[in-house]
């Protein structure tokens, strides 16, 4: 608890507005009268989340849009109470030990979790919060406690990681410093984002407060301070603005714990936050970019009163630098910046003369059909301004990305059901780049760290300029599940197109042809499973990845070389992951 308070004191020192708000929240803990309750937030990707989303496919999503995570445990209990069929552990309510003190409050334990991940050739991993899966072995521990009452909840669940971080082949487009040493920055676009291709030359350890928070709440409204990761939107694999691909950042917030229902209008869920993303140890840009950052963000979801299984949402995140480490009330208002540049210039002034900021926006939708046990979802992302509505309608693909997918339960013999998930994600700019400049998503010329925290992208794990196609099929039975999956990912095609555009090509490649056979693509096949045995949840994943044209070593080299006779320079990576959770 002292660590959480220290972080926020350090981040928002001398900020009268925010200090008063946060200390008001904390002081409520000390003298308040507490009453019996039984609820806390559920960590992202916990088995409870998997159970909850399965039951939404069976019963509908009236009690939660599942687009504003972490989700509260009382939402989970509502869904588990609906089940009339026996699906083995998928119908079982998982509850850790709880101890009640004179009907004032309850204390519980988060199930301890240990995970081991190994990569054979290169770093490979995603949606793993504070962890970074380098080559070699990576070991993680998560566990802690929660304390809850009717009006106050405290959680403490840190994340501790040890990363072996073995040496691997350095890609071509990693620059050297003036002394000839490797700079541990992003491949190809290193000056535009704080995303190291490797976190230094040695093994290292990481500590994160993880799912630690102090929150006050009344009915369905909550406010507080936290370091927990968040997942906004409906996507199963890659949400485009807020995911758990990076460690949770210190933030203060106000939001909902469940739907707020308005008669004849519908229900609303939201979270507004002020966060303080942190730099990695390898962010080495000029001094004017070595500043504390502030991220103002909001997630709003709406369900019409006549269609409770339809969820329409808006997310927005705005990054800026803090002058002297001080947060002002003006910066808290950046979230209300106009969405169109024509209006922005009228109210705020031209971008070149105002305080730098980086805007990211998205729209998402989710529609659950419990009668057919299926859901469809999608998200549209925009990384800058359109000039006006005319421009937006004429060029909606400018600096934009998108994702869409579906999940379906298939009831069939031998098991309780199968779950099929397909998701397509595109964060590669379109052909508009020929006539109108487009940036690498999650990057910004003025806010050089980009949309990152501790050196990892906060949004879609595939990263800027990439696109992916994912399919997975899992079979669910009494004591667990087993499944297979496949993914194709084009790794930063934007870089490939930009680099090729400026090549001095041979005559035979000047009429619309370039280096189209050396783009970076990863093809992954894998198997995964989860098994419950004598209070232990054991998860295992095994994947094989072919990294086509790893390193981009021969980009732009022609000399009679073409798709018929070029020499492929590929790599293969094998990843094994084992997780063990003790369920009391």
Feature tags:
Porin, 37% strand, 8 helices, globular, two-stranded antiparallel sheet, 584 residues, mainly beta, 18-stranded antiparallel barrel
Account of the protein in words:
This protein is mainly beta. It has one domain (2-582): Beta Barrel (Porin), CATH 2.40.160.130. It is built from 8 helices and 28 strands. It has helices spanning 2-11, 16-27, 47-59, 73-82, 329-332, 341-347, 389-394, 493-501, and strands at 41-42, 68-69, 71-72, 98-101, 105-119, 136-148, 152-156, 159-163, 204-208, 213-218, 221-226, 231-232, 251-256, 260-262, 266-275, 293-304, 310-321, 357-369, 374-382, 400-410, 417-426, 452-453, 456-457, 467-477, 480-490, 521-533, 536-548, 571-582. The protein has an 18-stranded antiparallel β-barrel. It is globular and about 80 Å long. It starts with a helix and ends with a strand. The model is unreliable at 12-37 (pLDDT under 50).
What is the chains' assembly state?
single chain
Average pLDDT over all residues: 91
Using only C-alpha atoms, the radius of gyration works out to 24 Å
Low-confidence runs of at least 5 consecutive residues: 12-37
Bin the strand percentage.
Answer: 35-45%
Write the layout of secondary structure elements.
Blueprint: H1 2-11, H2 16-27, E1 41-42, H3 47-59, E2 68-69, E3 71-72, H4 73-82, E4 98-101, E5 105-119, E6 136-148, E7 152-156, E8 159-163, E9 204-208, E10 213-218, E11 221-226, E12 231-232, E13 251-256, E14 260-262, E15 266-275, E16 293-304, E17 310-321, H5 329-332, H6 341-347, E18 357-369, E19 374-382, H7 389-394, E20 400-410, E21 417-426, E22 452-453, E23 456-457, E24 467-477, E25 480-490, H8 493-501, E26 521-533, E27 536-548, E28 571-582
Antiparallel strand pairs: 1-3, 2-12, 4-5, 5-6, 5-28, 6-7, 6-8, 7-10, 8-9, 10-11, 11-13, 13-15, 14-15, 15-16, 16-17, 17-18, 18-19, 19-20, 20-21, 21-24, 22-23, 24-25, 25-26, 26-27, 27-28
Helix pairs in contact: 3-4
